[in-house]
């Protein structure tokens, strides 16, 4: 689960990581009020969405007076912000964070993540902060240092000095760094984070280190242990179809193509995606109905797949192991009949009760296209989708 920058900054404060003073606002008038309460002579208005790269997309703006703060807020609020980290539709801006503007001397990159390879938490730091860290990693990997933390020993003082040296910090800033590193480390462990990123961490003109941006991801599987974190969820930032699928215990992922795919099991889903691609097509989504499915769940699954307006054909690829093929067939028929489906549906069933399932599809008179194997199913789905398109 992701949270907003302002929520990350509130957590940073609790864990002793310094951030600029600021507050959130849900309307332009309140944004101006926040600026007045903060005082000072310059503020930054920041659109709150679950994506980065807002700066380049007009989601981070400097204001010199309260009127300008209100103007920027009015421009951002109620719209969708598209950045290169969102899809083409962007994400809705329901609130802005107004904070004091900092006089920036240096921008650094600092993050803490779980490195599965070394099985440790890993600090990643770079003096080339503020920009696209993926580009730094690709073009100048020597500018990034990685410091793994041994779980038994915990974060050591010398590691703080290593990170400070890599960032090229002066003495005064080096003294401030341990509080930031320890805060990140403690926050990561106590709230079951999967990543904490500060980009940029800045040195101000008057020598202070501040987290100017904050991004935190949490391990979904641990959310039940942290109701305070779970409460930070903002469903408006999530794919509505993926959220709806979760309600029905279905795993749904939006992709970019035009073939809707209904499968069971992650492995079969991957194989199905590969086959569709191999045959020259592109999946619009994939929906994993899971192991213990029933007729109603299959029907919901169908509705979700088709709610994606881009779907030109549906490919069903189910292995009846725990769930039986005739149950799947009944669900498909109920959905197709209910929804007066006009686009082609290719069905490949295999496993328990496959004969009954296929006979039900064949005798339905609903014009479904059965396939004998995955190869043929993918080929047919791609061909029929092209014909419809
Ligand atoms: P994003 O990563 O989504 O683009 P950031 O919060 O990192 O958003 O802001 C982008 C850039 O805007 C920062 O690298 C920094 O240069 C500038 N910026 C952000 N907040 C402030 C601030 N409070 N004062 C001055 N500059 C800021
Ligand atoms: Mg940033």
UniProtKB/TrEMBL annotation:
ATP-citrate synthase/succinyl-CoA ligase C-terminal domain span: 262-381
Residues binding Mg(2+): 199, 213
Task performed by this protein: Succinyl-CoA synthetase functions in the citric acid cycle (TCA), coupling the hydrolysis of succinyl-CoA to the synthesis of either ATP or GTP and thus represents the only step of substrate-level phosphorylation in the TCA. The beta subunit provides nucleotide specificity of the enzyme and binds the substrate succinate, while the binding sites for coenzyme A and phosphate are found in the alpha subunit.
GO cellular component: a single term: succinate-CoA ligase complex
Pathway: Carbohydrate metabolism; tricarboxylic acid cycle; succinate from succinyl-CoA (ligase route): step 1/1
Entry binding sites for ATP: 46, 99, 102, 107
UniProt binding sites for substrate: 264, 321-323
Domain of life: Bacteria
Pfam families recorded: ATP-grasp_2 (PF08442), Ligase_CoA (PF00549)
Binding note for cofactor: Binds 1 Mg(2+) ion per subunit.
NCBIfam families associated with the record: PRK00696.1 (NF001913), sucCoAbeta (TIGR01016)
One annotated GO biological process: succinyl-CoA metabolic process
Record field: catalytic activity: GTP + succinate + CoA = succinyl-CoA + GDP + phosphate; succinate + ATP + CoA = succinyl-CoA + ADP + phosphate
Enzyme class: ligase
EC number assigned by the record: 6.2.1.5
Cofactor: Mg(2+)
Domain (ATP-grasp fold succinyl-CoA synthetase-type): residue spans on this chain: 2-202
HAMAP family: Succ_CoA_beta
Record family assignment: Belongs to the succinate/malate CoA ligase beta subunit family.
Self-association state and partner proteins as the record states: Heterotetramer of two alpha and two beta subunits.
Annotated Gene3D superfamilies: ATP-grasp fold, A domain, ATP-grasp fold, B domain, Succinyl-CoA synthetase domains
InterPro entries linked: ATP-grasp_succ-CoA_synth-type (IPR013650), ATP_grasp_subdomain_1 (IPR013815), Succ-CoA_synthase_bsu_CS (IPR017866), SUCC_ACL_C (IPR005811), Succ_CoA_ligase-like_bsu (IPR005809), Succinyl-CoA_synth-like (IPR016102)
Protein name, per record: Succinate--CoA ligase [ADP-forming] subunit beta
Species: Methylomonas koyamae
MF (Gene Ontology): ATP binding; magnesium ion binding; succinate-CoA ligase (ADP-forming) activity; succinate-CoA ligase (GDP-forming) activity
């Amino acid at each position: 689960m992701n949270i907003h920058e302002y929520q990350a900054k509130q957590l940073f404060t609790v864990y002793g990581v310094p951030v600029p003073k600021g507050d959130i606002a849900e309307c332009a008038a309140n944004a101006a009020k926040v600026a007045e309460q903060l005082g000072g002579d310059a503020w930054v208005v920041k659109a709150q969405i679950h994506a980065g790269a807002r700066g380049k997309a007009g989601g981070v703006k400097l204001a010199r007076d309260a009127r300008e703060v209100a103007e920027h807020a009015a421009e951002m609020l109620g719209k969708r912000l598209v950045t290169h980290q969102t899809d083409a539709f962007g994400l809705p801006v329901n609130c802005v964070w107004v904070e004091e503007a900092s006089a920036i001397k240096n921008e650094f990159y600092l993050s803490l993540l779980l490195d599965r390879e070394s099985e440790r938490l890993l600090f990643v730091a770079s003096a080339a902060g503020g920009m696209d860290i993926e580009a730094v990693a690709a073009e100048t990997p020597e500018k990034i240092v990685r410091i793994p933390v041994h779980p038994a020993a915990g974060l050591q003082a010398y590691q703080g000095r290593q990170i400070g040296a890599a960032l090229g910090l002066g003495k005064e800033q080096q003294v401030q760094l341990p509080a930031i590193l320890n805060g990140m480390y403690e926050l990561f462990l106590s709230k079951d984070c999967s990543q904490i990123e500060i980009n940029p961490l800045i040195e101000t003109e008057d020598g202070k280190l501040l987290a100017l941006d904050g991004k935190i991801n949490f391990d979904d599987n641990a959310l039940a242990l942290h109701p305070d974190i779970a409460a930070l969820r903002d469903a408006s930032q999530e794919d509505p179809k993926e959220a709806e699928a979760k309600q029905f215990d279905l795993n749904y992922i939006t992709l970019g193509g035009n073939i809707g795919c209904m499968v069971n099991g992650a492995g079969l889903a991957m194989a199905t995606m590969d086959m569709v691609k191999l045959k020259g097509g592109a999946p619009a989504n994939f929906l994993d109905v899971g192991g213990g499915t029933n007729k109603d769940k299959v029907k919901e699954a169908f509705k979700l797949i088709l709610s994606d307006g881009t779907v030109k054909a549906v490919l069903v690829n189910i292995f009846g192991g725990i769930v039986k093929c005739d149950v799947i067939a009944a669900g498909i028929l109920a959905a197709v009949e209910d929804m007066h489906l006009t686009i082609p549906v290719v069905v490949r069933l295999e496993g328990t009760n496959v004969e009954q399932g296929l006979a039900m599809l064949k005798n339905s008179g609903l014009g479904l296209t059965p396939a004998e194997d995955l190869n043929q199913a993918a080929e047919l789905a791609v061909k029929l989708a092209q014909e419809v398109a």
